[in-house]
## 1
Amino acid sequence: MLEEILVTARSNPHVDPVMHVWGWEISVYLFMGGLSAGIMFFSALMLLMKKDRETPFAVNGLALPGLVVLSLGMTTLFMDLSHKLFVWRFYTTFEPTSPMSWGAWILVLFYPVAILQVLSTFRKGYPFLAGLVESLPLVGRLFDLTERYRRLIAWLAIPIAVGLGIYTGILLSAFSARPFWNTGLLGPLFLVSGLSTGAALTALIARQHTEKRLFTLIDAGLIVAELLIVALLLINLATGSRPQLEAASMLLGGSYTGWFWGVFITLGLLIPLLLEYFEIRGALRNLAMLAPVLVLVGGYVLRVIAVDLGQETTWINYESEFNTQLLERLH
Amino acid sequence: MARYAMVIDTLLCIGCGDCVVACKTENKVPEGLNRDWVVEATRGTYPNLTTEFRSERCNHCSHATCVYMCPTGASHHWQDTNIVLVDPNKCTGCKACIAACPYDARLVMHPGGYIDKCTFCHHRVEKGLNPACVSTCPTHCMYFGLLDDPSSEVSELLRTRNYKVLAPETGNQPNVYYLT
Amino acid sequence: MNRREFIKLSSLLGAGAAVSPLLLTGCSAHPLPGSGQVSRTPTFCDMCFWKCAGFVYREDGEPWKIHGNDNDLHSEGRLCTRGTAGLGNYEDPDRLQKPLLRVTGADGRQTFREASWDEALDFITGRMKSIAENHGADRFAMLNHGYGAHHFSHLMRAWGSGSRAEPAFAQCRGPRDVGFKLTFGEGLGSPERTDMEHSRCIVLIGSHIGENLHNGQVQTLANAWRRNATVITVDPRFSVPAGKSKYWLPIKPGTDLALLLAWMHVLIDEGLYDRDYVQRHATGFEQLKEHVARYSPEWVYLETGIQPELIRTTAREMAASAPATLIHPGRHTVWYGDDTQRSRAIAILNALLGSWGRKGGLYIQEKVRLPKFPLPAYPKPKSDFRAAHGARYPFAYKGVSNAIIEASIGEDAHYKGLLVYGTNLPMTIPGIRPQLKAAMDSLELVVVVDTMPSEITGYADVVLPECTYLERYDNLRNSGERHPSLALRMPVFEPRHESKPGWWIARELGHRLGLQKYFPWKDYSEVLDWQLKQVGSSLQEMQKIGVKNFPRTRPRYFVDGQPVQFRTPSGRIELYSQQLADQGFDPMPEYTRPQQPPQGYYHLNYGRMPAHTFGKTTNNALLFQLAPENTLWVNPLVASAQGIENGEYVRLANPDGIISNRIRVRVTERIRPDSVFMAHGFGHRSRRLRLTHDVGADDSELMTNVKVDPIMGGTGMRGNFVTIVRETA
C-alpha cells in the first residue's frame, strides 16, 4: 500500500484540490473559436465554389454571425485573464514555443479578414442594413472595393479558418503536463467539430431548403468523421501511460462518463446524425431545427469536457491530510 | 545555462514544514498561498513500513514547459540560469503556465492577478545566500548550489548518493533532487 | 552553497536591471524581499520551552521574518517551524487587548467588561490583601508555564506565597527528573544534557523527536542519522524517527518497562555492561542483577510482542557503542502511573552502559554564574506547594498543579486565590475540567495573565493581557548547555493594543502591595544591564549580538580516574534506591501489566505535531495554514471494520461517556490496529480563538482514567481508551 499525502496544508486557489484554472470562459472561447472558424470556412468555400444561388446565406450572410461569434469568444477569453491590464503584452512579443502566442497572432490575422469578408458580402447578405449604413461617407466605396476582391478575401480566409480551427485544439494538446490533452488528435477533433458546428449553424439559420439540405449533408459527414476521431482518441488514451489511462477511466467509467457518453456522444453526435439521416431522406421535417441545435450543444459540451477533464489529468496528485476548507477561516 | 540544483535528503527530512513557513515569511507570500509544501509517502503494511518525507516546490526545470507555454515571455529563465521566474509586469494571468506544469501547482495565483511561484530565492542567491528554506531547515537536509561546479556540495552529493527526481518521464529535466 | 559561485551572476545583475521593462511601460514595481531598509533585533523564542535565540528582521519598519542566531547553542542558528512562525503570535488579531473584569449583569449573567489597568490591578491587589488578612499570603497560589513567569514567581515569593506549580512537572517531565535524581542525584535540565551529537547508538523509547521539534534534539539526532549512528526506536506507532531508525520495535502499548528490564537482563547476563564504571560509581548492582534475572527476553516477548532475538540484538548494539550510547530519557513521561520507575529503569540502563557523564551519553552541563540583582531576602512563606498534596507524593520536589487545583475546591479549601500565567489548564491537565470548574467557584480570586483568549481566561475574575515575547524584556536566558551561554530577549516592537510586559504587570502589582523594595527598577532593562555588567558584558552589547558564549570552567565529561561525587544520599549512582524503599516504594523498577482496552475500544495514543506547541500555537495564522487541525490515525483494518473512510469526521467516546469534538480520520498503516493516535492541542472551545475554535478533538478531555504516580504525583495519561463514533448526519 502507498499512502502519499500532503502533510502541510496546501490550498492554492484553482490548483487545489484539483486543477481548475480554466473555467467556462475558456470552454466558450474554444467553442466560439471553432464555430467561427467553421463559419468562415464554409462562407469562403461556398463563395469560391460559386454557390451563390444554391447557398445564398452561406455565401453572403454567414460572415457577420461569424464575426459576432468570434467576438463573443474573444470577450470570454479576455474575461478569463486575471491580470487584464496587461493583455497588451500578447502583442509586444512573439513566443514561437507558445501556442497561445500563435493564437494571439492568428486572431490578429483573422479579424481583418473576417471584417473584409463581412464587408464584401454585406450588400447582398443584409441589404436593409447595408442601405442604412451606406449613407455614411466612404462606406459605399468600402463595399465596392471589398466586393471587387471578394474571391481574394475568400482565398485568404480558408487557411486562416483552418488554422484557427486546428489552433483551438493544438492550444490544449501542446500541454505535455496534461496527459488527456497531450495527443495529436485533439487538433483534428476540434477542427472537425468546429466545421460541424459551423455547418449546423448554417443549416439552422439558412432559409432556402437546398441550402439547409446541403449543410445537413455536410454536417452528417463531419459527424461521422468526428466519431472516427473520437474513437481513435479513446484508443489512444486507453493504451497510453498511467495518467492517460486515468483520463480514459474518467471517460469510460468515472466522473465524466455521463457527460461524455450521454450528452456529447449520444445527444451531440448520434441523435443528430440519425435525425440528419432522416432529414436527408425527406422524413421528420418538423424536427429540422433539432439536429443542428443538438450539434451545437454537443460541440460546446466537448469543449467543456476537454477543458475540465484535461486539467484534472496530471502526473502528480496528492491528497491532503488536512481539510483545507478550514483555511477559509483566514478570510 | 548555469544550473542551480536543490538537493533534499529524504533520509533526514522529518516533514516539519519549517521550509514552508520560512518561504512564506521570507517572500511575504500572501496568506493562504504556498510556494512549497511537504509530502509524506508511506509504503508497506504495519509493521513492515517505510516513510519518506519530501519538501517540494518548483523544480526549476531545465526544459521548463511553463516557460515554453507562456505567450508573453513573462515566465522566463533568470539570467541564463535554470531559475524560472515570472515577471508580473508581463503576465496577463492567462494561466497557461499553471496548466503547463507537470508537477501541478508549481505556480500559484497571486491575489494581484498575476502568477507567483518559488523563485529559488534568487534575491538571496544573488547575494551568495541559500534560499530561505535551505537556510532554515533544522535537520540541514536541504542543499543548494551549482551543478556545473563539480566541487559544489550538490554535485558531490549527486555523485555519491542515490537520488531521484519527481516524474522524470515528463521530460522537463527537473532540478530538485531527492536523496534516497 | 559557496559564496564564490555567485560572483559572476552578481556582476551580471546590474546589466539585467538596466533593461528592466518597468521603465518602458510604467508598470508597478514588485520589489524583492530585503531590498528595503532592513533592521534586526535579537530575541529568544517563546513558541516553546526550548528558548532558541534568533533575530527578528524588519523591513521598512514592517515585521518581516525571524531567523536563528548562529552563535546560539540551543538552535545552532536554525529555528524550528514554530520559531520561524513567531511573528504570527505578534500579529494574531485575536490577542487579548485590554484588561478584562468579570461582571454580573442585571439578568444574572456573567460577562467580561474591559477595564483600565489601574482598575484591574487595584481589584487584584485588593482581593490579594483581603486573602492575606483573612487566611494568609501563602493561600494565594500560582500555576504557570513559560519563561515570563519569572516576574510573577518573584512577586509571589515577595508576597509570601510558596505555592507555585507548572504543569511541566506533574503533566510532563516530573517522573523523568525524579527518576534520574533518585538514580544520579540530578535531573536532565532543559535542554536535556543528551550528547547525541557524539552518540554512536541512540535508543528512543516513547520519544518521538522530530514530531516534537525540540530543536537541539532534532538537530543532533539528524546528525546522528547522518553519521549512520545506530538508532533504536521503541514505539507502538511508526513514528517519524521510527522510519529513520536501524531498528524499530513496534511494542505493545504500555509494556516499555518490561523491555527495559529485559535489556538490563541481557546486558548483565551476557556481561556486556560497563563493569568498571559500575564498580567505580554505582551501588546496588548485586540487587539489580538478582532483580532482573527473571526478566528474560523470552518472558518479556510475551508482554511486549518484541522477539527475544531482537531484544538481544538491540542490547548488544547498545553495548557495542557504549559509553557513546544514549538511552534517551524522553520528556513527556507521564504515561501509566509507574513513570518514575520507568524513568529509573532508563537511568539504570544508562548507568549500566556507563553513559552518564560520558561522551555520546549524558554530558555535564554548565551555566553562566550570573549574579542575582541585589534585593532583600524573601519572607518565609507559612506553607508551600506541599500543603496541596500533604504526605502524598513524597518525591514531588516541585508543585503538583492538579493537587493545587484540588486543594482550591470548597469552603475550607487551602487555597483562596490563584494566579494563572501562560498555561491553558483545561487542555493541559487530563480530565481536569470538572475540578477546575469547582475550584473556580470556590476561589476568591482568579487572575489569568496571558496573551491569548484561551479557555482558561473564561474562568478568571480578571484577565490581564500580556504582550508577546517580541514586545518585552524577560530574564536573561541562562540554561545549562555545552558551554555557558547567555541570551537576551528584548522588545522588537511596541506592545500592541493595551498589552503590557510581564515585568511591568508584576512591578505594578508589587508596588500596590507595598513591595516596592522588591521592585526598585523603573524598567526591567536596568536589572539585565546590571547582571550583564557583572559578567563582563552589557545590555548595549547584548542588544547587538543577542547571544554571548563563555568558556567552560570544568570538563564536559567525567575525567578518567577522577572520583565523582553524585548528589545522592550514598554519593554514588543508586541502582538500588534506599530512598524509595524507605518510603515504601519498590527500590528497583517492577513491571506491571497495563490494563487492556475493553472490547471495541482502542488505546488512545497522543503526541505532537511539529507545527504546533500543544494548543498554544494553533491560532497562529502561519502555523494554522500549515496544520489547521489534528487528525485521528486509524489503521486500515480498523477503518474497514468500522466502515470509516479516509477524510471522514468522527467523534471519540471514552468509557466514562465523554464524547470528543469532531476529528478528521487519517487511514494509515503507521498505527497499530489496537490503537488510535492524535496530536495534542486541538479542540479549542474558546470562540475568541477564531482560527482554531472548534477544530479537531482534544485528547486531554478524554483522559478521565488518570493513573497517578504515587512517587511524585504525575498524572499518567496513556491508560485511556476510546471508541469511534461515526457522525450520523
## 2
Amino acid sequence: MIIQKISRILSNFDNILPVFAAACAAMSLLVILTLPLPYSGDQLYPKQIVPGSSLNPYDRGGPPFTQAVIHSQYPGNSPTAGYVTAYLTPLSLFISEHTLYMGTTIVAHPGGILDEILYNTRGLDTVVEPTILFVAFAVAAYLFRKREA
Amino acid sequence: MWNEYSIGLAAAFACALVAFLALVWERDDLHKLLLVDLVETAALAVIALIGTDLSEALILPGLVVGIAELLALSQIYLVKEGYQQHRVKGLNIEVIMRSPATVIIATILAVYGIILSGFTGGAIAGLGIVFLLMSRSFSGDFHVLEMASGISWALWVAAFFVFMFAPEWWYLALMGAAIGILMKVITKMSLVGAMWGDQE
Amino acid sequence: MNEIGGAPLFFLEFGDIVIYFTPFTLTLFLLALVFSVFVLVSRPERQIDIAFGGDAYYAKEISLSELRFRRFMSIACGLACMGAMVTGDVFDFTLFVSLVGICNVGIVAAVRSRHVQNAAYQYGLVALAGTVPMFAAAAMVAATTGTLSMLELAKGTATVPVAARALLVLGVMGEGMAPFYAAKAEMFRAPGAPYVIMCSLSSLLIFLRVAEVILLI
C-alpha cells in the first residue's frame, strides 16, 4: 500500500526535485551531526602570506624564469612545475616593482600559482571545465535557434 | 576538537539545509532555478573552506559548472514556457545608439582586457563587446564567433598537451592557455549578449 | 593498496591527475567506447504512426540539424563517460559526472515537444542540485585527508569521513537520474530514439564507477 503511494508520488516528474532536495537537506543535517571533522595539516599547495610583498596573497617565490618550490601531489609528473608560478608578464612585473597592489590582480595575468594549478598540475580539470561550458552553450544556442525558427 | 574548519562546515551546511528546504516547498519553476543557483553558493563555500591555493583553483571549475548549467536551463525554460516574442530593442537611448562613444568605450574595454589577458581580461573585453552589441542592433553572423570559441577550446587543449608531454615548452603552453581562455571568455560573453538582444 | 577493481594495468599521468586502468575500469571504459561508436554509426529511428482502419501511415521526419545535435550530445556523453570511468582523482571524477549530466540534459532537451522540454528542465534542476553534494564531497575529502588522488587515498593512511562518501553517492544519484525522465517523457519511442540509450548507459556506468570509488577511498 505504501509502495503504491510512493510510486504514485514518484511517477510525476515534477515531484522528483522536491524529493531530491529533501534528501539533500537530510544529508546536510546528517553532515552537521557528524561534525566535527579533522582538518589534515598536510595540505597540497598550502597558502602562505609574505608580509610586505607586492604580490602578497599569491607570492610563491622567485623572479621570472626561475623554478618556485610548490607542493604538488606528484612532483615527478610535472618536472617544470614552478616556472609558471614564478612567471610574471613584463607589465605585471613593472606594476609589482612600483606599487603594492599587484597581488590583488595577479589572477588576471598569465603566470602565478593559480595558473600553475589550473593549466599545469591539474590541467585535466580545466580541460573538462570548458568542455562543460561548451556543451551547455551548444544546448543553449541550439534551443535559441530553434526558438527563433 | 571544534576546529575552525568544522565551524565553517557547520555554517556552510546550515546554509545548504535552508536552501534545500526552500527547494522542497517551492512550486514555481523559475524560482526553483534561482534557488538551485543559490544552493550552488553553499557548495562553493565548502570548497573555499579547504583554505589553500588548491581550493581557489577548484572554485573556478565549480563556479563554471553552475553558470553553464544555468545558461542551458534558462534557455530550456524559455522554450518550455513558449516565450516566443521578446521585444527587447537593445538599449533604447538615443545618445548610446547614435554617438561614437559606445564604440570608443567598447574599444577601450577590449584593448584593456587583451592587455590583462587571462580569465578576467576575457571578461572585461567581453563586457565591452556586449555593451557594443546592446547599443547597436546587431544583425550579423554568429558562426564566426562560434568558430572562434571552438578554436580557443582547441588551443587550450593543445596547451594542455604541451604541458603534459613537452614540459620544457611551458612558456608556449602558458601563453597558449592564456590566449585560449581570453578568446573563450570574450566569445562566450559576446554570444550571451547577442542572445539577449532582439532577433528579427 | 586496496584493490577493488583488480591490480592497475597501467597509468597515464597528467600532472596531479593520474588516470589508471584496472580490469574493472577498463571494462567500463570499453563499454562506453563501444556504445559511442554505435551512436556514431547508427541512424535515428523514425517513428511510424499508422492510421487506424486503413493502409496509410506517416513517418515522422527528423531534421538534419536535430540529428546532428543529438548525435553530438550522445558522443560527448560517451566521451564524458569514458573519462569518468578511468580518472583517478576525486574532483576530476565529479567534473566528468557533471559533464555526463549536462550532456543528458542536452539529449533530452533536443526533442521538440513541450512535455519533453518540461522533463528536461526538471531533470536539469536535479542535475544542477546534484553538483552541490558532489563538489562538497570532493572538497571535504581534500580538506580532511590532504589529497584528492584516489591512488593515495586507496593506501588507507587517511580515513575519508563517511559523510563525504554519502554526499558523493547522493550527488551521483542526482546526475544519474536521466533515464527516469527519459522514460517518463516516453522518449524511448520518440523520434531519434537510439541516442536516448546513451542516457541509460551513462547513468548505469557512473553508478558502477561511484560504487568502486566509494569502496576504494
